[in-house]
């Protein structure tokens, strides 16, 4: 099964707190996960408190990205806010994946054209 990086909601009613987790694609949002990769607290005001709004385990996120895990749109935006180095890495891997798909599509079209 494919692995994704996504947010898992915790906290109380009207006071959300999210964990950034690596989980299998078919598992439930707040269900089983493989590893906790960070936290995101949207209710926290960084100016008033000394706690970070976003905390990430960058080395573990890089590990999962290297193993083919894909971040969801929301998880991707949280990672982009939290780390510039991970932003570059995710962008590069996504561009490489898109280029690979384009090349495959062009090869298939050329093959069909030569067969016809």
Notes on the protein architecture:
This protein is of the alpha+beta class. It has a single domain (3-115), classed as S16 Ribosomal Protein, Chain: A (2-Layer Sandwich), CATH 3.30.1320. Helices cover 44% and strands 27% of the residues. A hairpin with a 2-residue loop joins strand 1 (3-12) and strand 2 (15-24). Helix 2 packs across helix 3. The protein is elongated, with a radius of gyration of 18 Å. The model has no long low-confidence stretch (mean pLDDT 88).
So what's the CATH class?
Answer: Alpha Beta
What is the CATH homology-level superfamily? Ribosomal protein S16
Total E-strand runs: 5
Tally the structural domains. Answer: 1
Which structural class matches the secondary elements? Answer: alpha+beta
CATH fold annotation: S16 Ribosomal Protein, Chain: A
Mean pLDDT: 88
Uncertain runs with pLDDT below 50, 5 residues or more? none
Instruction: Work out the helix count.
Output: 3
The gyration radius over C-alpha positions equals 18 Å
């Amino acid at each position: 099964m494919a692995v994704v990086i996504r947010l898992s909601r915790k906290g109380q009613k009207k006071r959300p707190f999210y964990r950034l987790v690596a989980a299998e694609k078919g598992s439930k949002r707040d269900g089983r996960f493989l590893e906790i990769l960070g936290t995101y607290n949207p209710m926290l005001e960084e100016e008033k408190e000394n706690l970070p709004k976003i905390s990430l385990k960058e080395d573990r996120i890089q590990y999962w990205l290297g193993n083919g895990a894909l971040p969801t749109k929301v998880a991707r935006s949280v990672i982009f806010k939290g780390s510039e180095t991970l932003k570059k890495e995710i962008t590069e891997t996504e561009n490489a994946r898109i280029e690979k798909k384009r090349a495959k599509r062009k090869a298939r079209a050329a093959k069909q054209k030569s067969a016809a």
